[in-house]
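Field reference: sequence -> structure
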Amino acid sequence: QVQLVESGGGLVQPGGSLRLSCAASGFTFRLNAMSWYRQAPGKERELVASISSFGISTDYKDSGKGRFTISRDNARNTVSLQMNSRKPEDAAVYYCCVNRGGKSYWGKGTLVTVSS
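Structure field:
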């Protein structure tokens, strides 16, 4: 079955950097686009960034443009999110997501907190 396991979350100071990773299994990773979402306390889950199946194209929502970089390693079945210049409003649980057959699959998320 599809499994997505996020890692790399933690405490970061404002302006700092953090790299999240998601290990995928249970499907043909290289044939699927992947996305990162986040959900802050009391807010809806929102899309942060997406990457096409072979990494040729990427898309970022305004919240991450210029600061976040999504990438993937199809040989290792992993997708990553490099986050720079962290802001307090970036604090959230970050989720890896894949859509297959009209269904969305999610990992359990990794918590990122931003504090000085």
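Note: The CA atoms of residues 49 and 60 lie 4 Å apart.
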